[in-house]
Amino acid sequence: MSELYKYFLSELWIASTCSFILGILIGSFLNVVIHRLPKMMEAEWKEQCEELLCVAQTEEEQTSISAPYNLIVPRSRCPHCGHGIKSYENIPVISYLFLRGKCSACKAPISLRYPIIELVTGLLSLAVIYVFGPTAAGLAALVLTWCLVALTMIDFDTQLLPDSITLPLVWLGLIVNYFGLFTSLESALWGAVGGYLFLCSIYLLFKLLTGKECMCYVVFTLLAAVGVWFGWAYLS
Q1: pLDDT digits (tens, 9 = 90+) for 36-48
Q2: What's the Cα-to-Cα distance from 224 to each of 44, 127, 195, rounded to whole Å?
Q3: What are the residues whose beta carbons fall under 8 Å from the beta carbon of 209, sequence distance 6 or more?
Q4: Nearest to residue 189, comparing CAs of 199, 176, 200?
Q5: Cβ atoms 195, 134 nearer than 8 A
């Protein structure tokens, strides 16, 4: 065990402060994920449907597809005037206060939601490290917390729960609990099975009785992820 790690363990307030700073930085990135990931999913679905139906794409659509759009590029811009946001204008929370909540170019208001998500992510990260300490369990809990923040806001905005987040959470939960960080591997396995089958049974029963669907399949995966992280007993 390194001297630096021992120091962090003995000085919990330092680890908590560092986790808060890391949290608001991650929160800034989560703002990008929350905004762009649903758009990326919709673009992929549209492309797959057009390919399946053999629908010819317009020149404008072909141009938009060829232009890269992911979590890294293009750089963030003001939705009102297209002003490219400079690095010093993208410092979590601080830049919002410095700019007084307005675009530096067109003075259009910037949503208060962005600094709120950054602050909430920072505070949740601080709470996680305060509870678990700067340990392997604490680091794993941070990743889970960040993913849940993104899922919560994406679901709030679009009623979508991306498989690109929920499925890795299931596998990561199995890896984490292979080392017994939150529960035993056996409990994690049956937690995943129980979480998935519980909602799946409700879905199938409701559809059998009414002929209608009451929820989306991805909700099954999310509950399976909760079960695999904390064990079957957590679901009871």
Answers
A1: 999 999 988 888 8
A2: 25, 24, 4
A3: none
A4: 176
A5: no
